[in-house]
Amino acid sequence: MLRTHNNGELRIANVNEIVTLCGWVQRTRDKGGMIWIDLRDRYGITQLMLEEGKTPKEAIETARSLGREFVISVTGTVVERLSKNDKLPTGDIEVKVTELSILNPAKLPPFLIEDETDGGDDIRMKYRYLDLRRNPVRQNLILRHKMAQEVRSYLDKQGFIEVETPVLIKSTPEGARDFVVPSRMNPGEFYALPQSPQTFKQLLMVSGFDRYFQIVKCFRDEDLRADRQPEFTQIDCEMSFIEQEDILQMFEGLIRQLFQNLKGLEINEISRMTYAHAMKYYGSDKPDIRFGMEFYELKSEEVDLTSGKNFPVFDAASVVVGINAKGCAEYTRKQADELTDFVKRPQIGAKGLIYVRYNADGSIKSSVDKFYSEEDLKKWIEAANAQPGDLLLILCGDGDKPRKQLNELRLEMGNRLGLRNPNEYSVHWVVDFPLLEHSEEENRWFAMHHPFTSPKPEDIEFLKSGDLGKIRANAYDMVINGVEVGGGSIRIFQKDLQAKMFETLGFSDEEAKHQFGFLMDAFEYGAPPHGGLAFGFDRLCSLFGGSDSIRDFIAFPKNNSGRDVMIDSPSTIDAKQLDELKIKTIV
Amino acid sequence: MLRTHNNGELRIANVNEIVTLCGWVQRTRDKGGMIWIDLRDRYGITQLMLEEGKTPKEAIETARSLGREFVISVTGTVVERLSKNDKLPTGDIEVKVTELSILNPAKLPPFLIEDETDGGDDIRMKYRYLDLRRNPVRQNLILRHKMAQEVRSYLDKQGFIEVETPVLIKSTPEGARDFVVPSRMNPGEFYALPQSPQTFKQLLMVSGFDRYFQIVKCFRDEDLRADRQPEFTQIDCEMSFIEQEDILQMFEGLIRQLFQNLKGLEINEISRMTYAHAMKYYGSDKPDIRFGMEFYELKSEEVDLTSGKNFPVFDAASVVVGINAKGCAEYTRKQADELTDFVKRPQIGAKGLIYVRYNADGSIKSSVDKFYSEEDLKKWIEAANAQPGDLLLILCGDGDKPRKQLNELRLEMGNRLGLRNPNEYSVHWVVDFPLLEHSEEENRWFAMHHPFTSPKPEDIEFLKSGDLGKIRANAYDMVINGVEVGGGSIRIFQKDLQAKMFETLGFSDEEAKHQFGFLMDAFEYGAPPHGGLAFGFDRLCSLFGGSDSIRDFIAFPKNNSGRDVMIDSPSTIDAKQLDELKIKTIV
């Protein structure tokens, strides 16, 4: 070792020891007679001290030549500090230098290597290796490391076997776009990178592996929205001879252990909510239930408290829904306008926002006073279960639209009212997802989860009767604080049902066979009942780290154009490589 | 859970319990009045029993309809067996069935699902999911799982941080051929799949991560020799502020722990041998040192015990080397001919084999008696340190060739003499590899390890003087039983030296900058001294599993044409996909 200790470990007990330390120069303070250097490494910071007249001259000279981020080695004696620094674990001591040598000089970094940096996003990505020196970024990756170890430890103890599935697999047109890899040895043919190890983990169940897991890279060639990465990591799991409830409990256990061991938090009840309930009361399949503010209906298939009053906007809508913003009756006109602007933003797309103030004195004032009497509005207040001082916020429209818009408003109100504390965690399941969803655009049905998800046994009749929208799946998502962190399903394990499913999704027999023949074959040789789930590992890390951005938890992320600006990739390749691969670019 | 117990856990203590089991039908024995079924899952086999007249009729009927590999569920009572089976952990009990249902029927598998199967390689690969049901194959993957957990546990405890490096990176022409991935969002440009995370792990050292590891998939588009896979797994590690000796010790510790915890074996001394020594005495950079049989020289730059006797073959050779096959003087003519045939095989390519029998009675008989007197041969015997009863086997030629051929013969003799016991493990390091090797074909120098390997400080002068063949590297391989399981080096961390290295390898400044500019840049911002290594994880597993084939330790391997015959990949892709990627195949 080039060092006897790291920069985080020296304590008062080490006083009088002769030590050798290595690291980066965080800062130097030259007070003439005395020079102090903060020496940094992954483990911490240790203060070095040199004294004119006592420290050897060469060391003093070298110290004066140091710049920020120089890599140095020092030898010296540990001494007790005169003025201690209780913010540093090593703050009781400093090292009186006797030898100092530069292992590698450093150019001035293009941004400050401090917790708070002056570097913008672009420059920090280009010099990601310097950004990674910053404590908060490193801590994110250390958290990721710890979480990976905890996940494996839990699953290993539960009898799961880690199996590596292949990265060079076969392209399937269903779902998102694949990245493909031309095969030199098989000209004209391509591998694909996996969007998930789905079929392989199901084959492992057919093989009798019983419990499988993997922390695995997956790939999707999608147009990148903010915070999507073309390569991402999943905690991928599958179990045999289980029912949905077994899976929910197994992975509740995992999440509880992660919170316990990584954050010292006990997670209480992990509730279950049906998809139908979530959509009806939150307008979202991943509601944040740290706060209530459930939707109430003023007009729907079941209720109508709005018609017959000649308010054309509501009359034209099939759905009128609202939330109750508790204690917000005092909102100024400006605040109300802000909310209206919020819901009218193109990303949300509402035409307007109706409000009803239920003032503290019991009086009622609304933006639709022209059409609705106080008596009418009292019915609304009752439906909203509002108290004096509350503010009703109401949207209208057709189908799911107003609910989805109201979901955004609900979350915004949660933020404004401080109801979404990032240090408070609420974990729950959303279950009973629809099996299929209809695409108006392509006029066909798609699997909401994937084509291997099993319908609920009691809903299989709808598959036969063609009532496809009514079929619920044995599918579930885990939601933490309004973020979907994982999801899965009980799988189809019968060949006939799987064939029926492919047919329903518009696969010809030939297509199904070409793409998934091996899985259909496998189902004929004794497939057990099985199911599983996958967690988004990047997302889970960012949630535990209290951040919205997965990029902060990936060592070398790509930007929104799928570029790694540090290594400058993707890039052109040699003509010779293209020739060998028997492909041509047509740009 | 669809079961109360698995098929490996019921014992005499469970007698009288009512249990539900699930699994695959291994075999059925129908003796008329009694039916026994062996029910199998990953955990073991449990015997089920049905009795005419006592077991419900439907269960009996269902039992009679079962075929091999049917998936069933049974409920019954645990009873003590009349005739116990001490080969099965569950052999003291059986389950008296009261209910039996078929969860999934199975077609007759195309080969026997037994430890010894009748299936050939091709059929087992096509139905890999059935092959994986076989106990030996599953045990291989369970060993792999355990090894992965042990590796991570050791490295985690030693302060290594697991960091995931990207899979979509940049193509570099140096080294083996890359797999590439066309970028749809950046038409005409490509990602490459990593051959190793080499540059990223070095950047992590520049970032101050200090100790990094990852068990990671790597990719090489090479023409596949037997037992090479296009995707393979490495245990990849890097450390900062260390010297070579620190790395050797750290990973000796890892290997010792793996042997201890996975095989219950204490590994004794782990010796170090220079590359020069290994080549001189074993003709190999990965000698199997479970047995001696070192080479001796009869003619070389230092010695000549052959010239001036008019034996034209030796006179024309610059090198004459031999091994001493202890106790083999009695070899028959046929055995001697076999050895001659062995070394003359095209893969080895020797022109012939000279032998000297040192008979038990002290007499000497050789295949070159015409040229060499007993006195001459006694000198050879002395050089070989042979005893009466031994047999000298001698090859000649120029340069390294005869040594490499003799290495093959030595290993063959080791096999024949039973000196290579697969259950005896010898671990050692080969160190001081040459930095560069010259390619006659391309008339240029190549990095023997990779371009980031540092020369030994005392040999740097040869880099300047152009004496390139003399430069030794701070590079090391770990060898177990003649298999290279891992290797690495201390890296260059100074920009100037790295630039000099690229220049020596024939990179123009521009090429070096284009391909590795980010690394050269990084070296300017404070790079610490660092080094590391990588183990071939597939190979390590196969070695621990006592197998020669890595394929047996990969869940879904590819064949020698890089095909996965189970999923039939690679395959053609849609014209639409090619269009989107802006590429054309030219087959």
TrEMBL record, chains A, B:
Per UniProt, residues of the Aminoacyl-transfer RNA synthetases class-II family profile domain are: 143-557
* Keywords carried by this UniProt record: Aminoacyl-tRNA synthetase, ATP-binding, Cytoplasm, Ligase, Nucleotide-binding, Protein biosynthesis
Q: What's a Gene Ontology MF term here?
A: aspartate-tRNA ligase activity
Annotated segments matching region Aspartate: 198-201
Q: Which Pfam families match?
A: GAD (PF02938), tRNA-synt_2 (PF00152), tRNA_anti-codon (PF01336)
Q: Which InterPro entries match?
A: Aa-tRNA-synt_II, aa-tRNA-synth_II, aa-tRNA-synth_II/BPL/LPL, Asp-tRNA-ligase_1, Asp-tRNA-ligase_1_N, Asp/Asn-tRNA-synth_IIb, AspRS_core, GAD-like_sf
Chloroplast as a keyword? Answer: no
SUPFAM superfamilies recorded: Class II aaRS and biotin synthetases, GAD domain-like, Nucleic acid-binding proteins
**Localization terms from the record:** Cytoplasm
The catalytic activity of this protein is classed by the Enzyme Commission as: 6.1.1.12
Residues involved in ATP binding: R220, D221, E222, Q229, E484, G536, F537, D538, R539
What EC class is this? ligase
Provide the binding site for L-aspartate: E174, R220, H449, R491
Reaction(s) the record says it catalyses: tRNA(Asp) + L-aspartate + ATP = L-aspartyl-tRNA(Asp) + AMP + diphosphate
What does this protein's UniProt record list under function?
Catalyzes the attachment of L-aspartate to tRNA(Asp) in a two-step reaction: L-aspartate is first activated by ATP to form Asp-AMP and then transferred to the acceptor end of tRNA(Asp).
What family does the database annotate? Belongs to the class-II aminoacyl-tRNA synthetase family. Type 1 subfamily.
Q: How does it assemble?
A: Homodimer.
Q: What is this protein called?
A: Aspartate--tRNA ligase
Gene that produces this protein: aspS
